[in-house]
Amino acid sequence: MDSLERYNPLKRNNDRKMKPMKLIWLGALLAGGLIGLMARAAPVPSPWEKPAAEMAGQMAGILGPGQAQLTIRNLSTIPNDIIPAIRRLLEQDLKTLGVLVSGAESANSVHLTLSENQRERLWVAEVIEGNETRVAMVQVGYEIDRSVPAQEHIVLHKESYSFAHGLSYPLYDPLDDPVLAVLESRNGLLALRQNKIVVFFFGEVGYIEKKEFAIAERNSSPRDPHGLLLPTADGKGFTAFTAGAECIGSFTSPENDSAHPENGWTVHCSASDDPWPIAQEDTASGSTTIKAFYNTARNYFTGVLSPSLGVDLPPFYTAALLPRPAEGAALLVDGIDGKVQILENGALKTIAGARDWGSDFAVLHSDCGAGTQIVASGSGEASSDSLRAYELPAQEAVPSSASLAMDGTVTAFWTAPDGKSIFAVVRSATNEYEVDRVTASCN
Questions:
Q1: What is the pTM of this model?
Q2: Where exactly are the structural domains of the chain?
Q3: Non-local CB neighbours of 100 within 8 Å, separated by 6+ positions
């Protein structure tokens, strides 16, 4: 518009004679056309500019001027080809605020995870300065891109174990002797019940009960019992934990009795109030087993750990170690007050999005998404329960699978020794117990 005003031929001034009339109009037309082209070529503001600026502001507020490494992990439905543009926006905003994104030589690092749930997207950054880690969060509404639906990239599958029917159903029992845990061994299938350990061997029509070992000596027996079966390092034996008792089982091939391999099992039980091993942490200096004291008069752990992790934990039903985006691992606990919390970097934080979890969860290592999922049962004791996978990029559980319907109430489940599957014990309305193996595939 400036060109049109300066060279308007209707204006009477001495400058009219500076250029012929044709050139004046040509110049005006070119100027106007150039302005129009520039207006059309001007980049449309990116919908990610605002959240990127907000996240960069929080990062810079934590780091201050300097350098930092930046990594981005996308667990959301944002297309992966958009991530480089989001990264460029972040780098530009950080540079404006005095933070230069650098290579691996920087001592500071930022791990940004783009996640989402059914309500909103959530960007979470772990900002690491030396030994200190702080968290920055930005909520990103779906109105930015409503054309992209929420995605569940995990599919859960179940496979039921087949048990042979004899005079009585092997896994049927009154409620005073429920199935607490199951373990696959090289020498049969082991089932821990409240009052005994049962050895099964596979036959033509499924697993057949072969031998029982009574758990006689114990300090107490709660109304809602729980148990734990762990394999020995060689895979030939086991250790069993239940309220007030500990059992050790070993297998030696029986001589001249190949028709009855169950006779190779020996099991010794004794009264015990020792803590139960609930997790194992592998570090550069070695492996540490985390143990928790079980309240034998009730059905939960007291919150006291051995060795202590330096933070007082509330009483809890379930706990598991989770790998985190930064180095190390974190302990996830499901408290008896209904809160799911995570112990990380010496602090206990509440997890959002876990209100509908039951009292049990297990960690599953897959080739999908972030590579690690938490599979949780539904809350309450439903006649038809369900399992669902979640991911935990920061402090909010993000659903990563649809619900998997179970044929009854899930009474217990845990991660298999290989880490790639989960065992679930399901009780039907007729008090029959079914054992399912749950696995995951990528959607």
A1: 0.66
A2: 9-41, 49-144
A3: 66, 67, 68, 94
Q: How far apart are CA 49 and CA 342, in angstroms?
A: 32
Among 3.40.720, 3.40.50, 1.10.3470, 3.30.2300, name the CATH number for the domain at 49-144.
3.30.2300
- CA dihedral sign of residues 100, 102, 108, 114: positive
Q: Residue 131 belongs to what H/E stretch?
A: none
DSSP summary character for residue 82: G
User: Which two structure tokens, joined as six digits, stand for 177?
Assistant: 């002797």
Tens of each residue's pLDDT in the chain, 443 residues? 443 333 333 333 333 333 333 333 333 323 334 334 333 333 434 678 889 999 999 999 998 898 889 999 888 778 777 888 899 899 999 999 999 988 766 788 899 998 876 566 789 999 988 888 899 999 886 555 543 344 567 899 999 887 665 434 456 555 567 889 999 887 788 999 888 999 988 877 778 888 899 997 676 666 678 899 999 988 889 999 998 899 999 998 877 666 777 888 999 999 999 999 998 876 666 678 999 999 988 889 999 999 998 899 999 999 999 887 665 788 999 999 989 999 988 889 999 888 888 888 999 998 888 889 999 988 655 567 899 999 888 788 888 898 899 888 888 889 998 899 999 988 887 777 888 999 999 87
